[in-house]
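User: Assemble these into one structure.

Assistant: Restating your components, then the assembled model:
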Amino acid sequence: MSDLNGAANGAANGNGGGAVNGNGGAGGPLALSLVPKTDTKQTMKDFKTDQEVRWCPGCGDYAILAAVQSFLPELGLRRENITFVSGIGCSSRFPYYMNTYGFHSIHGRAPAIATGLATSRPDLSVWVVTGDGDALSIGGNHLIHALRRNVNLKILLFNNRIYGLTKGQYSPTSETGKITKSTPMGSLDAPFNPLSLAIGAEGTFVARTIDSDRKHLQSVLRAAAQHRGTALVEIYQNCNIFNDGAFDPLKDPSVRDDITIRLEDGQPIVFGADGQKALRRTPGGSFEVVDTADVAASEIAVHDASNPDPSQAFALSRLDSPAFEHTPIGIFRNVDRPSYDELMRAQLDEAAEPQGKGDLAGLLASGDTWRVD
Amino acid sequence: MTKQVQQLDRVIIRFAGDSGDGMQLTGDRFTQETAAFGNDLSTLPNFPAEIRAPAGTLPGVSSFQLHFADHDILTPGDAPNVLVAMNPAALKANLGDLPRGADLIVNTDEFSKRNLAKVGYETSPVEDESLSEYRVHALPLTSMTVKALEDFDISKKDAERAKNMFALGLLSWLYHRPTEGTVAFLERKFAKKPEIMKANIAAFQAGWSYGETTEAFSVQYEIKPADHEPGLYRNITGNTALAYGLVAAGERSGLPVFLGSYPITPASDILHELSKHKRFGVRTFQAEDEIAAVGAALGASFGGSLGVTTTSGPGIALKSETIGLAVATELPLLVIDVQRAGPSTGLPTKTEQADLMQAMYGRNGEAPVPVVAPRSPSDCFDAALEAARIAVKYRTPVILLSDGYLANGSEPWNIPSVDSLPVIEPAFAEPDQEDFQPFKRDPETLARPWAVPGTPGLEHRIGGLEKADGSGNISYDPANHDLMVRLRQAKVDGIAGDVTPLEVDDPSGEARVLVLGWGGTYGAISAAVRRVRKAGGKIAQAHLRHLNPFPANTEAVLRSYDKVVVPEINLGQLALLLRGRFLIDVVGYNRVRGLPFKAEELAGVIQDVIDSE
C-alpha cells in the first residue's frame, strides 16, 4: 500500500491550500495534474480489449466507443490510472471494451461508486458511463449529488430516450405521449431535460454532443477531461432498434445546420448554414431566435460558459425541444470550483498539521483514564 | 453532622426525567466518576426516538441506568436500587421496575397538578400512600437549585436547567464519587459561557453539600473499587469502541479508511466519531442515501482503501444490492449494522437481534457473507478488527452485527497495547504480471487478487455479471456459473477453520445443558449462568462471535450436550440456523421488547431446562 499512500500524500502536499483557491477560467490545470503521465506513445489500439463488442449492429454506442478510444491517447495518461465505472444498461457495458481499469456496477449507482473511488484516489482519471434510464431514473439521486459536490468525475450520459436493454420501454427523457411496450396509449410523464437538471444541480461543467459527430464529440471530451470536478456530457445516441431516428433532424444534412446551435465560448451565438440566425436575450431572461440581418451586432447574445451565474446556461438548455426546432450543442457551462477530493484532502492535511499524523496508542488512551496496578 | 457509612458490594441507579432534563448527561457524568473511582460498571441508556416529545408526558421520559460494583459485573442490572425521578412521568414510567424497599428520590417541584394530570395521577403519589413500599426522599430539587444560584447573573430558566447537576452532586455525595472529573468536564463544556459554567459547578457542589448537611439522608454508601486486571483503563461505549477498531484496522493494515455513511439511529455516533480522526487519514463521506454510502465505500475498496459503511437494519435493506455486488466482485468491504427494533422504522432507539437473517440471506442469489458479532461494548473494538481481517484476507464483504444496547451502553475497557493488535496484510497484486487473471484464486483461502487501479499491467474489468473462473471475463456458461457459486460459498465456509474455536465455559465439567448465545446478550446470559451456578445448578455456556461461518467445532460442541438453550432478542433466528445446519433441536428463548434480557429471567429459563432433564 505504501506507493498508493505515497500517491495520495504527494497529491495532498502538491496542492495544499492553493488548490482550494482555484485559478479561474475553464478547467484549471489541477484536473489531471495528479494523474501520472505515460512516456510511451499510445494509440487507439492500446485502449481496445480482447472482448467481443456486443451492442446491436448499427448502435450509436460503437461510434462513441471509437471516439473515446481514439481520443484518450492525446491525454497521455498512464493507462492503469484511468478507470471507467458504469451502471446497468446498454451503455454500461462500455468498461468491458476499454483496456483500462473498469467497474460495471449496479443500476443507477455508478456515480456513487465512482465518488468513493475518485475521492480516495486523486491520481486516477475516473469516467462514468451511464444512460438516460440509469442516470436520470433509478440513479437520479446520485447524479445530482455528484454534481453539487463537484466530485472529480467525467460523466458520459448516453441519451437515446428509450430503455434498450429491457427492450423498449419509455425512459425519463422520452417525449410525452411516447408509444412503447409499457405505454400502448402513450406515456404520461413529462421528460427531464438532462442539461437543465444538471445546471440546476449546481453542475460546474455541462455539455451536449452527438454520437455521429466525432470531431465535436472529441472536442467536448477534451474539455471535460481537463475539467476540475464533475463534467456532465450528454451524448445524443441513436438506438436503432427501439427508438431509431430519434435525433435524425440533427443529422440530416438538409436541415441540421439550420437547427443546430454550436456554442463556442466568447463568441456571438449565430447559426444556420450561413450564420443567418442568431440568439437574442429577451427581457424575461430566455432566448429568442432572430434573423442576424435584422438586429444590431450588439443585440446578439455572446456565449459565456464560465459565467458563475447559471441563468444564461439554463436559458440555453431550455431551447432544446423534442421537436428539434433549435438544439444547442457544445459546452453550456464551465465554471471553476474546487473539486470534492481536493477539499477532502485539504481537511485531512489541516487536521494532521498541528500535531502531525495520528497516534493510535494516544487515541485509544484519550479521555478519562485510570490505572490499575 | 456525622453520617453513617454503609458498605455495599453493588448498586443500580436509574436517573429518569423528561428528555429535556439532561438525564443522559447526568448518567454519563456519574458513570465517568464511577469509572475513575475504579468500580466495575455497566450502563443502559434508554431514550425516546423523538428529540423532544411533549414535556412532562410518558413518551418523553428518558432514563439512564448504571450498575456499579466492587467486583466484575456483566449487565446494567435488572432492577434499580435507586430511582431518581425528575417529574411525575419519570416516576410513573419507571416505578414498575423498582423493587420494594428501593430508594426513590423525587423532584417535588415538578409534581404540580398539571404535570400529575398529564400522566393520569389524580393525587400526588408522593403525598398519598402509594409509595409506602419505598424509601422516598421527596426533595424540591428545582427550587433548591434556583436558590443556590441566586447570586449568578443567569436567567431563571438557565438556573432551573442546572437541576440535573444538583441531583448529580447529591448522588455523588451519597455514593462517595470523586468530583474533580465533573468539575473539569463542566469547565470544558461551558468554556465559552463562563457564567453558565460557574452556575452549573455551583449547582453540582450545592447538591453535594445538601447531602452532607441535610437530615434527609442519614447514610452514605461506599462501594470499594473492583479488582480489575492491571492495566490502563477507560470507560467506552460500543459505538466509540467500534470507531476506534476501524481506525486501528486502518493503522494495522496500512490501508486508508473510507467511511461512507448516512445518518441513522443508533449508528450515527460511529460516523461522528470517525469524522474526528482525519489525522489518521480517515475519510468520512456523508452520502445522499444509504445506497450511495455503501456504493462509495465499495468504490473506495476497489481503489485500495478499507471501505466501510455504518448503518442500522433499514439501511442494510437498502444496501443489499451493493453488498451483493461486493460478493460478486470479491472486494473487501465492512458493513456495520447497529441493530435496532424492527420491522420497518420499528423502535429506532431500542435494541434487538432480529437482523441476523437479513445479514445471512438478505440478498438475491447465492450471496454468502461472513457475519461477526461483538459481545460487549468494549468488544466492539476487537470485533471491528476481526471483521476487517476477514474482509481483507478473503476479499469479501463482512457484516458486523452490533446492536443499540452495545452501541450506547458502556463499560470499563482495559486499553490494549497497539503492538498486541493483529496485523492485517493487504497483499495487493504485484504489478506487470504476464497474463494476469483477476479471478485466479489463492489455493488456500480461495481469495482472488486485489489489483487496484494504478497498478501497471493489471488493467481489468469487474462487475456484477457472472465471471469466468480465472479470467473474470463475462461468462454465461452454465457449468461455470455453478462452479463460481460453489467457489464463493466454499471461500466463506473455509473461514470456519481460520477463526477462534467456540469455547465452552463449564467449571463443573458435568453440565448436561448448554446455553448458547450470540452478540449483545453475552452479559445477561453470563450473569444468569452465574446465578444458576450459585444456586447449585450445572450449566455450560458458549457464545458465538462468528455467525457465518460458525467456528469449525460448533457442531461437536452442541452435540456434546443433552440440551442447548438459545436465548435471542428475536423469534429464533440463530435457532433456525442451527437446526437447519446441524439438525439439532435447540430450545429457543425469545423476547422482543426492545430491551436487553434481564439476568433473573434468563436464570429462571435456564433452571427450568435443567430441571426438565
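The two ends of chain B are 58 Å apart (CA to CA).
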